[in-house]
Amino acid sequence: PLFSAMDLLTLLQQRALWQMPSPEELEFEIPTDLYDLLAGSLASDPDQREVQLTDLLQWADN
Description:
Layout (H helix, E strand, L loop, with lengths): L7 H10 L14 H10 L11 H9 L1
């Protein structure tokens, strides 16, 4: 899970402070297109979330 909170207030605090780790910080290697898809869908600002379902389908079909 992204967050370990056991109550709403802690969850909101964790979410406010969370940042997507860089590819180098991940414990495992993932394809660049998957990283970009995740980063776009997990952006803190909802207006900056750029997830295209067609991109997700293309990635899933590969």
